[in-house]
Amino acid sequence: MFSTTTNTIEGRPVREYLGIVTGEVIVGANLFRDLFASITDIVGGRSGKYEDVLARARKEAIAEMEAEATRLGGNAVVGVDLDYEVLGQNGSMLMVSASGTVVTL
């Protein structure tokens, strides 16, 4: 599966558009507070542990989106958009979502 933020893939014309696919991952903010409480790798205000959790959530959202694209019979997702949202009372959760258009090339 090939995913890209662009609407086309140079040299690979789209044969068929199959629809919109999404992937969402929600993680509790308490996880982030726990990570901040035990951080040992803060350098210049950055937290490697916090970034690792966000990276993992992003990868899982993309993988979920690509799995849905495969189920629809596509071999690529174009126009991918990644979003991060705070959810829940007092911003207690973070959602990472990936969406795009599944196509066959």
From TrEMBL:
It holds the Pfam family YbjQ_1. Coiled coil: none annotated. It comes from the Bacteria. Belongs to the UPF0145 family. This is UPF0145 protein SKP52_04370.
